[in-house]
Amino acid sequence: MNRPEYLLECLSEECNEVGQRVSKALRFSLQEIQPGQPLNNAERIVEELRDVLAVTLILIEEGVLPNFDFVEDVGAIAKRLKIEKFMSISRETGALS
User: Fold this and answer.
1) Quick one: which of 5, 7, 46 has its CA closest to 25?
2) Backbone phi, then psi, for 33, in 5-degree steps?
3) pTM score, whole prediction
């Protein structure tokens, strides 16, 4: 395994940790604080997202991933529109209240 592969593995791991923490928040609430933890689930999601961002920035700096604007990215804006569209469909079908 070389450095880019190692960093990509780190990115994969961090993304999985975001998913796990989101699942915990859905099961136990965003405000729940797990025994022995100082942060609630919402704060822990943010911590995991920071970890994803940190690894992503390293991958961009090293030229493994192309640079993009995290806030004004055209792809992110398009994804937001898609999410809103499909959320509307879910409301119409009764799957989302």
Assistant:
1) 46
2) -110, 120
3) 0.86
Instruction: Report, as an integer, the average pLDDT of 74-90.
Output: 91
Q: Where are the domains of the chain?
A: 3-66, 69-97
Greatest alpha-carbon pair distance for the chain in Å reads: 49
Query: pLDDT tens digits for 46-58?
Result: 999 999 999 999 9
Distance CA 31, CA 34 (A): 10
The answer to whether the CB of 13 falls within 8 A of the CB of 51 is no
CA distances from 17 to 63, 82, 89 (A): 24, 24, 29
The amino acid at residue 77 is: I
Q: Cβ contacts of residue 54 below 8 Å, gap of 6+?
A: none
State both tokens at 21.
């923490």
CB 24, CB 41: distance < 8 Å: yes
- Reading the block at residue 90, the tokens are 């879910």
